[in-house]
Each structure stands twice: as structure tokens, then as C-alpha cells.
TrEMBL record:
SUPFAM superfamilies listed in its UniProt record: Metallo-dependent hydrolases
Pfam families in the cross-refs: Amidohydro_2 (PF04909)
Annotated Amidohydrolase-related domain residues: 171-309
Annotated organism of origin: Marinomonas colpomeniae
The protein, known as: Amidohydrolase family protein
Length: 365
């Protein structure tokens, strides 16, 4: 068991389990095993120790090499990561790297990225990070092949995958690229693979837009149906249901929807990944206090994430900026919420990991 000691260096209190790189003070992976030094919010990072929403693979083109992406993470506060691929990819013969700039080009579900991630894990798993592989291939509008593909994953990579998602229930951004929202009938057809996820105790992260600026709750009934139909599944709703198509919803209306569903569905969790939440909601005047109160109230139901996509041209600075922006609201959380969300306690419990978040230092420590 690692026990960290404190010492004074240039009148700054530091923990013996903390390393420093590029001026950023970080904890080791082992410092989350058993008892460790309390977390001093005044001198330690406000960014999360877990990134539950990180795409190691892009839609198309070259990715940041696996080892390099892990090196980026090692320079930040992050020690625990969900390794998403991207389940929907552009055609291999396409020169397009950003589907938004290529209307009409299909972006369709595939296993390609997941298998690359798995091979990288087999050959190059890092010692200083805890990585959780996720299956991102599932097409929720055509669910029939899902269960057989899950069996194939387990046959080829036994014990490597422990999550499903991010998968799309409805993603308006891809409507121009042949994406079709799942129907109520499709949701009924998820039964087999959702049962398998329950048997394995795997969470599933679902991207499901609430609506858009013209029709604020247009697609909300789809998520409501999924939650009602599969109440025993661990469902993570990505981005608090928001999208670039919906940037003007009143904070009070948004929070009321989320609160109602959290109260009704005990296995629902939310992730606060993607900078659109800060750009259009958290940082807007009169909104911050409302969202902080919401996150504090439901602190055991929230997961942090960057939603970074590992395109080859994205640098370490881009990742650190995304981590800072998506984590800005962390600064204003109370200590209980900070420990649950930012220091990973929710994530550890969700996956039954043998880690624990450190306690927050009191003012006299």
C-alpha cells in the first residue's frame, strides 16, 4: 500500500506521491490505491484524474500514435481513461477527415477502430495509466448484429473490453452523412445485447441529442424510451444530451429535464464531456451557479471527459486545452462533488475498480 508523505519545498506543500512535469503537479497511478495523501485543491490541478470520453482513433486519416497519446496523458492530471475508438468512420478511400465538411459521404458503424485499439493494448499497454477499452461499433438503428459482434470481440480479445460506446441513438451532426436515428422499434430490438451488457456489468455511453434550437425537446422521447425499457442497464448519457445544434436552451429547462430523469432512473449517469457545455452553457452569465448546484446535488451520477479526438494534427497543447476547458467548472464544485467527479470516485465504483479517490484536505492540513 502506498502511503504518501508531505514535505515543504519553497514554502509550497507537496505530496510525496506527486510528480511534476511541464510545471503541472500530478499524482501517480498508485496514489489511488488504498490510503494516500489528501488532495490539496489549492495547489493540485482542477482537471480530472479520469477522462471517461476520449477517442483514441479519428473518423478517418492518421491517428496520434497510441504511445504518443498515452504520453500526452502522462503529462496531465489524467491517470484513468476510457479508450473509445470512433464507431462510425468515413470510407477508407475517402480523402475527407471531417465529415461535417463532406455532406453526402457516409459515416457508418465499423469495428475497425476498436480492433486497432485492442491490438495497441495487447502490445503497448502503459504501466502508468489505467485504460478501459470500449466497444464503439454498435449501430443502434440496426442492432441485430450487435450480440454476435460482442461475442467475436470476446473471442479475439478475451477480457479486454469492459464498456460500450460512445454509440449514437440520435446524432443530428451526422444526418447529412447517412446516419439514421434509432426508432422506438429499434430500441425494443436492443434487448439481446443490453442483456449481455448487464450480464457483463458493462456500462454503455449513448449520444442522444435532446433536440435543437428550433425544437428543444424533439428527440428527448427516444432517450426516455431507452431508459424506461432498460432500467437495469448502466447507461451514461453523453454531453448532458447537448449538441452544436442546440446552444440556446434555458439552463433551468435543461437542468429540469436532467434532474427528472436522474430521479426516475437510478442507473442513469451523465457525462460532462465536450467543450460545447462550457462554451454555450456552463460559462454563460447566470448559468454557472445553476449548473454547479446541479452537479453538487447529483455528484454521484456525473462523469468527466474531454471528448478529445486523436487526429494526427492534434497536439498535446490541444488536449491540455480541451481538458482545461471541459474541467473549468470543476473549480466551483464543493469538496464532495470534486472527489466524486474529478478525483474519480464515481468511475471507480461504476467499474468496480480497486482504486479510491483521495480525501480532500481540510483547511488546516
Amino acid at each position: 500500500m502506498l502511503r504518501c508523505t508531505y514535505f515543504i519545498l519553497s514554502v509550497v506543500l507537496l505530496s510525496g506521491c506527486i510528480s511534476s512535469e511541464d510545471g503541472i503537479t500530478n499524482r501517480t497511478l498508485d496514489s489511488f490505491r488504498g490510503e494516500s495523501a489528501c488532495y490539496n485543491r489549492e495547489i493540485e490541478p482542477f482537471t480530472a484524474v479520469v477522462d471517461t470520453h476520449l477517442h483514441y482513433r479519428p473518423f478517418n486519416g492518421k491517428a496520434i500514435p497510441f504511445d504518443e497519446m498515452n504520453a500526452y496523458l502522462s503529462k496531465t492530471s489524467v491517470r484513468f481513461v476510457n479508450v473509445y475508438g470512433i464507431g462510425q468512420m468515413l470510407p477508407v478511400n475517402s480523402s475527407c477527415s471531417n465529415y461535417l465538411k463532406c455532406p453526402g459521404i457516409p459515416v457508418l458503424p465499423t469495428t475497425r477502430n476498436d480492433f486497432v485499439n485492442a491490438e495497441n493494448m495487447v502490445t503497448s499497454a502503459p504501466d502508468n495509466l489505467h485504460l478501459t477499452l470500449s466497444m464503439t461499433f454498435a449501430d443502434l438503428s440496426n442492432p441485430k448484429p450487435t450480440i454476435e459482434l460482442m461475442k467475436l470481440y470476446e473471442k479475439r480479445y478475451p477480457g479486454l473490453f469492459h464498456w460500450m460506446g460512445e454509440v449514437n441513438l440520435v446524432k443530428q451532426a451526422q444526418f447529412n452523412n447517412h446516419h439514421v436515428a434509432a426508432s422506438y422499434q429499434n430500441i425494443e430490438q436492443w434487448n439481446d445485447f443490453m442483456a449481455e451488457l448487464r450480464a457483463r456489468n458493462y456500462p454503455i455511453t449513448i449520444h442522444s441529442d435532446i433536440g435543437n434550437d428550433k425544437s428543444p425537446t424533439l428527440y428527448l422521447p427516444l432517450m426516455e424510451r431507452a431508459l424506461a425499457r432498460y432500467p437495469d442497464n448502466k447507461i451514461v448519457w453523453a454531453h448532458l444530451g447537448m449538441s452544436r445544434e442546440q446552444t440556446k436552451m434555458k439552463a433551468s429547462d435543461h437542468i429540469a429535464i436532467l434532474s427528472r430523469l436522474l430521479d426516475a432512473h437510478s442507473n442513469l449517469m451523465l457525462d460532462i464531456s465536450w467543450r460545447i457545455l462550457d462554451d454555450y452553457y456552463f460559462s454563460q452569465s447566470n448559468n454557472q451557479a445553476k449548473y454547479v448546484a446541479f452537479l453538487n446535488q447529483y455528484s454521484t451520477r456525473i462523469l468527466p471527459g474531454s471528448d478529445f479526438v486523436a487526429f494526427r494534427n492534434n497536439t498535446y497543447k490541444v488536449y491540455q486545452d480541451e481538458l482545461n476547458i471541459t474541467g473549468r467548472i470543476h473549480k466551483y464544485l464543493d469538496d464532495n462533488a470534486f472527489r466524486n467527479i474529478v478525483l474519480g470516485e464515481n468511475y471507480f465504483k461504476l467499474l468496480n475498480l480497486d482504486y479510491q479517490a483521495p480525501a480532500i484536505c481540510s483547511s488546516n492540513e
